[in-house]
Design goal:
The protein is an alpha+beta fold. The protein contains four helices and six strands; from the N terminus they run ββαβαβαββα.
Length: 129
């Protein structure tokens, strides 16, 4: 199959690469599915921490750049919405404990206004009640 033969609705192997300096730099993953279903699975596991989606190993540059496939066992675990919420709240607590946010003024310690201040305060208060 050449890149010109691609049908986005057809199921096939899709190749995803990581950018220079990213955690999995020099590696790629393969996900079988349609263009959209493969992309959705990639987003579930890696969020926005990847670079490009390709229809073939050749177009991804696997051989050209001596990339190594990242084994599925090393992929990040997909979290449920409840786990994501718990992780977010823990992160908020850690940010507060580290003194990186000044809740009284709505500014961080460097004086930059936090756009998410109200949401973070609400989330923090929900956890600490």
């Amino acid at each position: 199959m050449t890149d010109n033969d691609i049908t986005l609705a057809a199921e096939q192997d899709w190749y995803f690469t990581f950018g220079s300096g990213q955690e999995h730099d020099g590696k790629y993953v393969v996900i079988h599915g349609t263009y959209d279903s493969a992309r959705d699975e990639m987003l579930e596991h890696f969020g926005n921490r990847w670079s490009f989606q390709y229809p073939s190993a050749d177009s991804a540059g696997v051989a050209e750049f001596s990339m190594v496939e990242l084994p599925r066992a090393e992929w990040p675990v997909t979290l449920t919405p409840e786990q994501l919420t718990a992780n977010l709240l823990l992160a908020v607590e850690n940010v507060i404990a580290a003194g990186h946010l000044d809740w009284d003024s709505g500014l961080d310690v460097d004086g930059i206004q936090s756009r998410a201040h109200a949401a973070l305060v609400e989330a923090y208060q929900a956890v600490t009640r």
